[in-house]
Each structure stands twice: as structure tokens, then as C-alpha cells.
């Protein structure tokens, strides 16, 4: 088992300072800073307190949604149902609020169904060993269809945002309380990822799942847990989205599909050289939120923004694949 775990660690550079390695590991951080500086220079309103608050709030909801996806991809699998589960969460909340249910009940039901879809993915992919891409496309389609059916193909507006709206709109100076909670969540995730056997097993599964199983690690159970976590976090993000939009939106998930994969895969280059990780995802989310906000202030069209997002996704995929191949060639 030690051999499997050691293979997940990044090898130290041979010789002196490796400029290329340094640029790959920290390039995403430099890109984020450069983007913020450029937009602030071109549009000073970008750096206003109100806009920073909006960016952080938007990024916080996305960060919750993409956290579970990060570890699933780190384990060598995929989940493309996360955004549909979030959309379903918004519709469940809106439908129940419209019928007179309170926010605690509506939120709990939404999270429960997120858990159901996460466990369904886990059962089919982790336990029955069916192909993850096909399965999560199917379960995502099911979640999206249920979301559309709840509102009969349209959104469901409501007026009361309850305690979720209070949390969403609360601030400490210009920083949303939700952003502080997300930082705490990602801090806990970082400890689990880098300081426990749980995190080591996740990366070991991507390197050689059969070796992990032979070493006595319950790989199927771990993967089942990761899919369940992804479903729950997607639904929680859906609850916050419903409060943010004051409505349930059955088709909102489509806008998060490219963003989720881009944040995780592009973020996979940060620190761990081709391995998706929570810090990389968080930086990727902030980069995308800043990009969309700055692009809107500059008057970019939706198609222009989509082109940039797609280019970033392609870049992230290419860099992760290239880095993994190079790393394995050195083993």
C-alpha cells in the first residue's frame, strides 16, 4: 500500500529551481491576480465593494457545488449530473415554498433528494461498476426532467427567502458570510485531503484502483461516499441558488456544466500538478467568477464569454492529461 500512496505524491524536482514546474503549479494564482488587476484598470467599478461582494457570493455558491466533483475527478471518475441536481434543488425548494412549506422543510427535502441522486450514482458506478460518464448523464437527465416537471417547464417564483436568504445576504464588511462559511468548509476539506488517509486513498484510486483494492482499501465504499457527497453539496448549492434568484429554475444547471469542469480541471494544475484539489478548485471558481463579472462590465456578449470559458476548459483538460502522462512516464 505504501507504494501506491507514494506514487500519488509529487516528485521533487531534480537539481535546482525548476521554473517550468513553478509556473505550472502557481500559474493559476498569477492568472487570477492578473485578471483582477486588468479588469480593475479597464473598469474601476470592478474593484468596487458592491461588485467584490457579488463576485464572492456567486463564487461561494459555485464552490459548494463543485467541491464534491473535485474529489470524484481526483479519484479518476466523473460526475456530470451535479448541475442538474442543483437545478432540481431550486425547483423542489420553490415548489414547496409556493405550497406554503417553510424554508427548513423545503431545504431538507431538497438536500435529501440530492443525497438520493448521489447514492444512485454511487450504487451504479462504485458498486455495480457501470461507466460513470454514461450513468451520470442518465441520472442528470432524470434530475433535470423531474425539475422541469415540477414547474411544468417553467420557473417558479416566490417572495420569501427565509433563513437561507438571511445567510446569503449577511455580510462582514464587504465579505459575504457565505464566503466565510465556504472558506471554513474548504479548510476542512483541505485537511481531509492532505492530512488523512481518506485523501491519500482518493488519489491512490486514480493511480491504480486495483492495487488499492488489493491492499484492503474499500474503494467501492469510498467512491460511493464521494458520489453521495457530490449529490448533497449540489443540492445545498441549489438551495442557495433558489434564495439568490427568488425562484426555482429548471434549466439553470446548463450554465454550471462548463464552469464546474473548468474550475476542477484547470484548478488541478495548481499545487498538485495535474491532480484536482480543493485549493485549485477554489482558485478556479474565483477566476471564472471574476472573468464573468469583468466581461459583463466590458460589455462582452454571451457568445464571447462562452468562447473564453470553453477555451479555459480545453486548456485545463490538455494540461491535466499532459501532466499526468509525463508524471506516469517518470514512475
From TrEMBL:
<feature type="transmembrane region" description="Helical">
    <location>
        <begin position="80"/>
        <end position="97"/>
    </location>
</feature>
<feature type="transmembrane region" description="Helical">
    <location>
        <begin position="174"/>
        <end position="192"/>
    </location>
</feature>
<feature type="transmembrane region" description="Helical">
    <location>
        <begin position="278"/>
        <end position="300"/>
    </location>
</feature>
<keyword id="KW-1133">Transmembrane helix</keyword>
<feature type="transmembrane region" description="Helical">
    <location>
        <begin position="23"/>
        <end position="43"/>
    </location>
</feature>
<feature type="transmembrane region" description="Helical">
    <location>
        <begin position="306"/>
        <end position="323"/>
    </location>
</feature>
<dbReference type="InterPro" id="IPR001851">
    <property type="entry name" value="ABC_transp_permease"/>
</dbReference>
<feature type="transmembrane region" description="Helical">
    <location>
        <begin position="249"/>
        <end position="271"/>
    </location>
</feature>
<protein>
    <submittedName>
        <fullName>ABC transporter permease</fullName>
    </submittedName>
</protein>
<feature type="transmembrane region" description="Helical">
    <location>
        <begin position="222"/>
        <end position="243"/>
    </location>
</feature>
<keyword id="KW-0472">Membrane</keyword>
<feature type="transmembrane region" description="Helical">
    <location>
        <begin position="103"/>
        <end position="125"/>
    </location>
</feature>
<keyword id="KW-0812">Transmembrane</keyword>
<keyword id="KW-1003">Cell membrane</keyword>
<feature type="transmembrane region" description="Helical">
    <location>
        <begin position="55"/>
        <end position="73"/>
    </location>
</feature>
<dbReference type="Pfam" id="PF02653">
    <property type="entry name" value="BPD_transp_2"/>
</dbReference>
<feature type="transmembrane region" description="Helical">
    <location>
        <begin position="132"/>
        <end position="154"/>
    </location>
</feature>
